[in-house]
Each structure stands twice: as C-alpha cells, then as structure tokens.
Write a structure and sequence with these properties.
Two copies of one chain form a homodimer. Chain A has 13 helices and 20 strands. The C terminus of chain A is likely disordered. Chain A is of the alpha/beta class and 423 residues long. The first copy, chain A, folds into two domains: 173 residues, Carbamate kinase (3-Layer(aba) Sandwich), CATH 3.40.1160; 174 residues, 2-Layer Sandwich (VC0802-like), CATH 3.30.2130. In chain A, 32% of the residues lie in helices and 25% in strands. In chain A, helix 1 crosses helix 4, helix 6 runs parallel beside helix 8 and helix 12 packs across helix 13. In chain A, the strands form four sheets. Chain A has an eight-stranded mixed beta sheet with strand order 3-6-2-1-9-11-12-10, sandwiched between helices. A four-stranded mixed beta sheet of chain A has the order 5-4-7-8. At the A-B interface, helix 1, helix 2, helix 3, helix 4 and strand 3 of A face helix 1, helix 2, helix 3, helix 4 and strand 3 of B. Chains A, B: Belongs to the aspartokinase family. Chains A, B: It catalyses: L-aspartate + ATP = 4-phospho-L-aspartate + ADP. Chains A, B: It holds the Pfam family ACT_9.
Chain lengths: 423, 423
Amino acid sequence: MGLVVQKYGGSSVADAEGIKRVAKRIVDAKKNGHQVVVVVSAMGDTTDELIDLAGQVSPIPAGREFDMLLTAGERISMALLAMAIKNLGHEAQSFTGSQAGVITDSVHNKARIIDVTPGRIRTALDEGNIAIVAGFQGVSQDKKDITTLGRGGSDTTAVALAAALDAEVCEIYTDVDGVFTADPRVVKKARKIDWISFGDMLELASSGSKVLLHRCVEYARRYNIPIHVRSSFSGLQGTWVSNEPQGDRKVEQAIISGVAHDTSEAKVTVVGVPDKPGEAAAIFRAVADAEINLDMIVQNVSAASTGLTDISFTLPKSEGRKAIDALEKTKERVGFDSLRYDDQIAKISLVGAGMKTNPGVTATFFEALTDAGVNIELISTSEIRISVVTRAEDVNEAVRAVHTAFGLDSDSDEAVVYGGTGR
Amino acid sequence: MGLVVQKYGGSSVADAEGIKRVAKRIVDAKKNGHQVVVVVSAMGDTTDELIDLAGQVSPIPAGREFDMLLTAGERISMALLAMAIKNLGHEAQSFTGSQAGVITDSVHNKARIIDVTPGRIRTALDEGNIAIVAGFQGVSQDKKDITTLGRGGSDTTAVALAAALDAEVCEIYTDVDGVFTADPRVVKKARKIDWISFGDMLELASSGSKVLLHRCVEYARRYNIPIHVRSSFSGLQGTWVSNEPQGDRKVEQAIISGVAHDTSEAKVTVVGVPDKPGEAAAIFRAVADAEINLDMIVQNVSAASTGLTDISFTLPKSEGRKAIDALEKTKERVGFDSLRYDDQIAKISLVGAGMKTNPGVTATFFEALTDAGVNIELISTSEIRISVVTRAEDVNEAVRAVHTAFGLDSDSDEAVVYGGTGR
C-alpha cells in the first residue's frame, strides 16, 4: 500500500455535510493502509463570491492582491476538512500551497508550477498524519508572493504533488462518474471510459471535454502519474488515465476513445489576403502579439485568377474582440479585403490513437456527418484526432451521429472493446 | 513626517463601502507625507461565520486547524483593502502575519508575540508602498504553523509592528470616538478623554473598559509607543494614550481618569475554611491548576470562636463551572464547609493616578455609593484604582453616582481639568 493523492473539487465540499462525507472517504483510504495526501478546492461558490467582492472595491483588481484574496477560499475548506477528519479520530494537518512547497513563477492569476518541495508534507505523513493541501495556489520563487494557478489549478496541484511524492495514483474526485465517450448531456448512450491513454485524454481535453484540463493531463504524462477520475458521491470505479492499462488484464487499445464537442469558439476569416510569402505570418504575428491562442487554422488554396486567398482560424469567443482589433490594425500593411467574425459555430472532434492504423476512420466520420445532414466548414487533423467545424445548431445531432457510427453507444452490439476494468 | 501604523477593526471594514471609505483615509495619511502601515481585522461577522462553520464539522475543532481557518478572514479584508487603495492610484501590498514577520509561540488560538521581523514591510515601504498587514495572526517560531493571537489580537499586532518599525504613533480606529470617562451607554454625560497615561489606561482596561485591551496597552507601554484611539467614521481627534501628554501644551495629570464597570464576572465564596497556614494556598493552587485567572480576592478576618474564615474571589463567569469543579475536589483535603456561587454581581472601578496624592478619593467614592443606596460586598485597591463589587442590578446607578461625584460629567462646573488637546 503506497501513497495516494486525492483531489476534491468545490462541489464535493460545498457545505459542512459535504466536508464530513469527504472526510469519511479519506479516512477509509487511510484505514486501507495508504498514506493519504488530499488536495482540496474552495467550497462551492466561495471563489465566485470573493471575485464579486473584489469587483465591488476595484474594477481591475491587482493580480497580486487578487491571488491573496482568492487563496482564502482553499484556506477555509482545507482547515474544515482537517477538523472533520480529526473529529473521526484520525490525525490530519492542513497546509497552504506555500507550506506544501508548491513553487511557481510570478504570473499572478495563472502561475505555472516550476518546482514542488513537499518536505513538510513528507514529515506530516511520516508522523502518521493525513495531509490536506490547498489546491490552486502556490508561492512565487523570486518574490515569495502568493500566486494562483488559474483554471483547473487544483487538479494540477494534485498531479504535481503526486509526482513530487512519487504517489502510486492521483485520484481526481468530481461530481461525475468519470470520462465519457461523449458528453452524457448530449448523448444519452455515452459510456464511461474505463481506461484511456494520456495521449487520447490530452486530445479530448483540448477538444472540449471538461472533466480534466489539458494542463493537468500533460503534467501527469510527463511524470507518468496514473490519474483515476471518479465520483465523490459513489464508490464506483471511474476512468483511469495512464500510459498503460492498470491492473492484470491486458487490453487492446480502443480505436476510438470518444467524441468531444466545443461551442466556446468563434471563427475569424481574413478575406482576400495577397498570396505572397510573409502575409500569413504578419497576420498571425498580430494575433500572437495580442496574446491570443488560436486553435484550428485553415488557409484556402488561392484563386489563380486573383492571387488572393482566405485564411480562417478559430479562437475562444472571449478573445474575439481583441483579435479583430489587432487584425484591423494590420489591414493597411497586409492589404487584405475584409474580416468576417462568426460565433455561431461548433467544433466536433473524434479522438483515438487507433485511427493511425485504421484508414477507414476519416471516411466513416464524414459519412456519418453527411448522413445527418451536417455541413462541414473547416477540417483539421492530428495523428489521433479529426476535428471539424459546423454550425452551432447542428452540434448535438452531429455528435450523436458520430457516436453511433463508431459503435460507441452503450447498448450497441458493435461496441469497440474497451480497455480494462481498472482495478 | 514619520511612519504611522493604523489599525482598522472589523466594523470599519464590514462591507465594500466600508473598505473604500477606509482606503480613502489611508491614502490621506500617505498624501500627508507619512509612511503608512495598516493592520486590518476580518470584515464584520466573517470570524463568527467561520467559527460557526467549524462547529458544523467538529464539536471541538483542533487548535492548529482552527487558526488556519480563522486567518482566512483577514486574508480577505487585507487583499480587498489593498485593491481599493490601488484603485485610488496609490501603491499597496498586503501581507499575512507570517509574511509581516509576526513570530509567536505555539499556543494556538491565543498565541503570544515573541518577535517581530518586519523586513518585507520595510522593503515595501521603502519602495513607496502602503503596507497592509493581517491583524490577529502570526506564525509559530518552532513549527512554522499559523497561529492566532486571541481576543484583541489585531490591536496587539498593530502596536507590535509600530514598536518594531519605530513608528511615531499607532492609531487604533474603531467605531467610537475614543476612551470615555465611563461607558457612554450608561452615563450620558460621559466625556471623551483627550489624553490618558499608560498606567491609568491599563487599570481601566482590566476593570471592564472595552475600547483597548490590557495586553495591547501593556505592549505599547513597554516599547513606549503612543496610541491614538479614534473613530474611523469621523475626522475627530480621539484619545491619546502615552507616557506623557502629546503636543505642545503642558497639562496636568487628571486626579481621576474614569469609572469602569464590569458585569462579566461571578463571585465564588469558600465558606468555613480552617484558618491555618496553607489552606488558602491549597484552594488557589486548585484554581490555578485549572488554568483560571482570578481577579479580586478577599479573605475575611476569621472568627475567633470558630477558627474558621471565608475566602471570596471573582472570576469570569465563563470559568465558573470549571472553578467549582476544581474546588469540589479539594473539599475533603482542605476541610471547608461549602461553596457559594453568585453570578449576579458587578464590579465598579475608579481609576486615576491622582488618587495616590489625594487622600479624600476613597472617602468620596464610598460616600457616593452610600448616597445612591448601593451596598458594597467586596473591596480591592491598587495604588491608582479602587474597585468594589455590588449587586448587578445596582451597577448603572452606582457608575452614574460616582461619575458625578468626581466631577466627570461633561456639563459639570466642577470638571477636573483634563490632559491636552492631543494634536
């Protein structure tokens, strides 16, 4: 029995009852002989309430102070969780990110972890304690200021601690049963995935699956820390994310892991760009200088008669205004005709390492969409993913059609054999 | 223009509007050329809400975790205050007790400050910042755990920082105009005291005056840091507490500084104690072993016929049960008759360094109580204080009678000349 890191999100510790329920689960792991490190998020809506308070005193809160404010949230939940565990007769100590040795850069509100020195956690464990650690926060290496890690930060804290402590698994507890072959709210027949590789999980995460964030999975893959995503409300096995299937059973890699969709993006088209070297570069430099991350990028073949081409890309809707402003400033220099902005789009992605060696996948994907009457506007592929952009209104039908076409529906006889039972 | 430390209590920063109001006041001090360090308490009822949450997860919260929890309160208020100041165009940085170098012992929930190493505060000031520091909290020297300082802790933080930074004054902002000659809720004619010595303030604080706690005044006297108690809701001068009157005017020490009362105590009488050496000691050892602080102690002259005496003392009502239990256990050994417990008492104290050299004070005090028909049950005196215990129901009348008798009423022609105008 080794060391496990467990992470509980805000919905699992939303109130005193939730905290007591989670405390019992933690104590169970300890009773099973594990050393247990728990990473906890702020309770329920605490973070939103703190953000609201900040807005009341300052329209643009300073980054350093904003981080100081937000980190109060985990401080509350972790102290209460430690109390609840001690009330069950087990020793527990809570630690801030700083005390746990989570060292970050100085980029407030979205700091990156650059080192983890969990000496105090190790000592607490060796003394028989359950260690409770504040998620989402750290301390900057140069100024010793409190930082926060941004979206999904608590998951990243958990994986980083698991890596630094050489944990046998990082359990991410959430309010769903695991990672599904598609969003169960859209596809009723979506199935829980028992095991998925880091590579496929990364593609799903960057294609709109919300259960794990890309950043956390990437960290886990780099240090080869198995992640077990599961519900804090049930005792069920969830989804294992790792290099190899867990447990004794040797299982075959699934051809297709799942279908993800994303309606948070918009499409920008730069119309009538002179097809000369350097023009596209100038456009993307302008967008990059505005610190906007693009997703899909497609350049049409230029029309021979005009020597002009169109360049389209997708980006988060929240960045749309900034991108348009940045591009307008380059219009004279680049000499394009116009800009089109379209936020009524959806992205549908098919992910699976098996598609590398199964040439029929792309054809099946497009046929399914065609049969469903869904028009494809952009296409982008990687070795283990195909993504298309469609009209937003078609997204649910498109996801269901693709899910069925690849035999992913839970009651389908054609179901691809899925990996392992976990353990 | 030197360095000032300002402390704002929870009622001054109860909501976003309060925080913005306080921010303006802080910026005014900065504009006047001061270096400004601000110590802030948790917002309004935050601490009570956190205590309530703790009670929901554990009937007896662990000290270490309880401190971790409570310190979230100041974290929120200090970050918001720093944001509000920055929003007014001035630089501000917030610091936890640990970051500010407030080093304490390891007694959770009521830690004592044992050192202050404000290196980061000094740096922040030198860089032109206003430094905002979390009151009430520190970090333990041995284990580096977060501690809280107990009741009145934020005032103590402020005075300790003022001493460590060699501030010219420690301003304690509160929701009253200063220290009064009596509780204004009881004595309508009570007057604000312009200046009071550390010694008299210490006696008032230990006699029931709530504005400053004994501990904070004692710290200020030891390091000779003038305290200015004033309202955060007005621009008025408040009460200066120092060794010597502030400002240019030489003023006379008042004979009487004020009248304090306290209804939070109870009286225990041990009846029929054998009047032999060691009996009283055994009684007080039992109480001390239960970690109960006694206040007044009176031993009656023993009756020659019986060789028995009665011993009475007062103590906080909250300690009553514990004291009775401890004493019951000694009954056999000490051989006393019985215990009496009376929580319907009040203590009335007259404080003033002038009484040392004014022999009529005691007589005037007792005459005033007699004229008001108030019966005296216990008497205890120090060089600069006389305290009596009366029935609780008589307390308001007794305080008013004494206040008037010593010419303290605000419209009285006989008013004792009071010290200074502050500045």
